[in-house]
Design goal:
Length: 174
């Protein structure tokens, strides 16, 4: 009886440990597999206005802090990236804080992956308090790190969203 009981107990323990929810782990690879972001187009912004502001600047080139950024190609709007922005916007609005990584360790890469977008490079800009696309763009472009995301030639697509007074802009390329 003892020899039969030990393997059964080991198997039960192994199953119990492997069935824990993904939130018990802080690794991004695990978190990306534990949730799926529903694609939504309710960004609460004028997507075309923000995309035009971004692309006009990318095509002209600009100065990000002390770094001169040459002209780069225009971005296209991607609904998956918009969905990732909506998801993060809701999260940061709920905690009333600008954070790129959620409490359970989800990163922008995890959120983009959860929309079904297969990316090779990804980035994110956050802001709060702005009342228009022009205002948030103007504040991002005078911040060296945000400006460098906007001018990053590796990025080919973007999405953005606003929840309450929190703005999220997500960049990526396949």
């Amino acid at each position: 009886m003892k020899s039969i009981l030990f393997p059964i107990m080991c198997m039960a323990l192994c199953c119990a440990l492997s069935c824990k929810k993904g939130s018990d782990s802080n690794t991004p690879e695990t978190n990306a597999k534990t949730f799926k972001i529903e694609i939504s187009t309710a960004t609460n912004i004028n997507n075309d206005v923000l995309l035009k502001l971004i692309n006009d600047t990318r095509l002209a080139g600009c100065k990000c802090g002390t770094v001169t950024m040459p002209p780069v190609g225009a971005l296209t709007w991607n609904v998956n990236l918009g969905a990732a922005a909506i998801y993060q916007g809701k999260y940061i609005a709920s905690i009333k804080s600008l954070v790129h990584t959620s409490a359970n360790g989800e990163t922008v890469g995890d959120r983009v992956t959860a929309t079904g977008y297969t990316w090779t490079t990804v980035g994110e800009n956050l802001a709060s308090g702005q009342t228009s696309e022009t205002q948030v763009f103007n504040e991002w472009i005078v911040s060296e790190s945000h400006c460098k995301n906007i001018m990053n030639a590796s990025f080919k697509e973007m999405g953005a969203a606003k929840t309450d007074n929190y703005w999220v802009q997500v960049f990526a390329a396949k």
